[in-house]
Amino acid sequence: MKQERYDIHCDSQSALDLSKNAMYHSRTKHIDVRYHWLRQVVEEQQFKLEKIHTDDNPADMMTKVVTGGKLQLCAELIGMECAPAGSLSSPKATARFSL
Fold first, then answer.
1. Positive or negative CA dihedral for 67, 72, 76, 78?
2. pTM above the 0.90 mark?
3. Radius of gyration of the chain (CA)
4. CA distances from 50 to 20, 27, 29, 63 (A)
5. pLDDT 10s digits, 4-56
């Protein structure tokens, strides 16, 4: 089964605006031409870009420094569960290194 369209969530309103507006602007002239393919695939409706609030963006745990609470929220958003304290302390789960 082939997916017809991919939904991409983005918390940057500027990035969303740039993906929809091909007009040249002096503040965007630094963007390399090889990244302009995104506009084309959005126009062809292969990708659908959607705004996501930064509080609800699970990608933040991999791209930003976040608090423990935010890390746990992001993990829950993608279906991860934190292991209980001490549950990974068995000898098999502990990596040993020697220099």
1. positive
2. no
3. 20
4. 12, 23, 24, 19
5. 888 888 888 877 887 777 565 666 666 666 667 777 787 888 888 889 888 88
Q: For residue 51, what are its two tokens? A: 């705004």
Taking the C-alpha atoms of residue 78 and residue 4, their distance in angstroms, rounded to an integer, is: 23
* Residue with tokens 């990244």, as numbered in its chain: 35
Q: What is the pLDDT of residues 60-98, one digit of tens each?
A: 888 888 888 888 888 888 888 767 766 666 555 555 544
Return d(Cα 17, Cα 60) in angstroms, integer: 20
Report the 10 Å Cβ neighbour count for 74.
19
Residue 60's nearest CA partner among 39, 36, 81, 76 is 76
Give the type of residue at 14: S
Question: Strand ranges (DSSP E) for 1-99?
Answer: 6-10, 47-51
Residue extents of the structural domains in the chain: 6-77
> For residues 61 and 74, is the Cβ–Cβ distance under 8 A?
yes
